Amino acid sequence: MTSRIPSCEIYDWVIDRNWDGIVKYLKEDPEGHAVDASYFDPDCNETPLYAACQSDPSLEVIEALIDAYPDAAHIPQTKNKDLPLHVACRYRCSIQVILALLQAPCNEELNNSFTSSSANIDNQYNMVLAGSKWGKTPMMALCDGYKHIILGVDGEDLIPSISMRETYAGSTQMLELW
Question: Rg (Cα) of the chain, in Å, rounded?
Fold first, then answer.
């Protein structure tokens, strides 16, 4: 990565959902523009990757952002302490996006620099079990995103074999899905 200060250009494009612009920008000069993927918004306390996961982007966008700055997949948002994986699950991103986040490599120096419960993400197993500020794992976030589908109007399970309580208690079952 270059030594220049990251600009908010990619982050702004994420907010505007200019997915084609992001991919084109990162492909035209991968090394030169990668530093902008490491931008950390001081108001929202998030990276472009984190913000993108809130808007169900294509796999191509997520891969471009991860390729440019892989560590972003392992950096928790500073207020909620959740990872882009939590957000992708909560906002119902595609399984391909979720898998790309899980497979993002992590810089060991970054891995050792965190002290929060959602930190020290050194492999997929730990990433799946990472808790947010409230102790929610990505599986819980996934359930939050789909609870209107899983639960009926009166709170009864629409799928009798799956209950929200069992799913929340069994966050490690997410590992079996991936």
Answer: 17
